[in-house]
Specification:
Oligomer: single chain
Number of strands: 14
Largest sheet: 6 strands, mixed
CATH class of the largest domain: Alpha Beta
Number of domains: 2
Order of helices and strands: EEHEHHEEHEEHEHEHEHHEEEHHE
Strand content: 15-25%
Length: 340
Amino acid sequence: MQNIVGNRNSLIAICHVDTSNAAPIIATGADCLAVVSGICSAFGPAQATEKLRNEIEKLNNVIMKRYKYPSVLTIAGSDSGGGAGIQADLKTFSALGCFGTSAITAITVQNTRGVTGIQSILPEIVQGQIKVVMDDIKPSAIKIGMVHSAELVHAIAQTLRVYQQVPVVLDPVMVATSGDKLIQDETIAVLKKELFPLATIVTPNLDEAQILTGLSIQNLEDMNKAAFPILETGCRSVLVKGGHLKGIRLFDIYRHQNGQEEIFETSAINTNNTHGTGCSLSSAIAAYLAMGSNLIQAIKEAKDYVHQAIENGQDVKTGEGNGPLNHFFNPKKLQKYELE
């Protein structure tokens, strides 16, 4: 029968309830049991009550299991064309089985051919987005992308200092695939001073590494040299991406503050559909970190994902310029982990 208990409707099971059927009845959705004959008519009422209680407790241990999704926060700009920025980040999180959350830093007027306008979001709104997500959903990793102004850098750094236990993947987005500039000149120094020291890893492409270091980068040796001044900013590690170099083999160089070095090699794919590659890679690294991979493993897994996403989207025409990756070439189910 249906009854009102407290301030909610509760389903109470009554009549012919005993130790043989109590657990299955609760499993159907009953909130509580009314047991009379099952106890009173038993040979030993006390023993029957104890047995009934044990059965219900065992079932509750199963029913009351709770789970969580591996969640990731992206702090980045919105791409109206859907290929990069927040849109690419959330697609990547979803494709890899993570729950994506976001704090939008700017709105861009953008398609596959280029960027024609940028409107920054108010710093206090960006701070608010980050804080409500971090305090409630508690993401296991953070990705930072486009941060257009120095005011936004200040706001983001101030907020993230409270959550320094969460790994941060910082993609210093400065130039779009189309060549359009996405950051104010005065923002670069502030970015290096305030956000880089909070980063677990910084992932510049060659253009960004040249802007950050002032060095000309033409080959693998130059990439290796560029890693050192970036590490001097205080970030824990750096991945200098060599996707813009010519050749049939592409190389990325990883360096850590502890001296660890890794070179990652992939084959080049002949396609114009590379818009959002950097966003997707940094997001994939963050996703794998959220799912428990160590940093080197996360980079390897992320690079493999992005390579396959490019490969599976290389022959698709989306717009008249640089098209997007195929983020959902092999989407994973949303992962669930049992809460402790």
